[in-house]
Sequence to fold (128 residues):
Amino acid sequence: MMYTEKVLDHFRNPRNVGEIEDADGVGTVGNPVCGDLMSIYIKVEDDRISDIKFKTFGCGAAIATTSMTTELAKGRTLDEAMQITREKVAEELGGLPPVKMHCSNLAADALHEAVTNYRTKNDGEGVS
Ligand code: FES
Fold:
């Protein structure tokens, strides 16, 4: 199986690993294909992602794709973050082996979950 240098770099030196204690939004998703888990934490300021971190119980491809996803998402508006797809992330990494494409679902799905979580919490004010 061939991984690009970019994938290996993000796997060996993952960016934005960790947890944000007072996160404004959290997204946790499981991968139905392998059972692995991913959590993404975001801080939001003026409708933009000001900080982002992730923790995973996932494989190297999941770590690399999520690391890249957090880099792409940081500083973006929430709408822009919702447009980040697994294809976009895989493209930025120079491609992923086809059997590992499912791993990149975790990153995009967890990011979208975190944004939705933030929006739900904020729209929910006073709604009950
Ligand atoms: Fe589970 Fe890659 S094998 S995320």
Remarks:
- The first strand starts at residue 25 and ends at 30.
- The domain at 5-121 is CATH 3.90.1010.10 (Sufe protein. Chain: A).
- The chain is about 45% helix and 20% strand.
- The chain has one domain: 5-121.
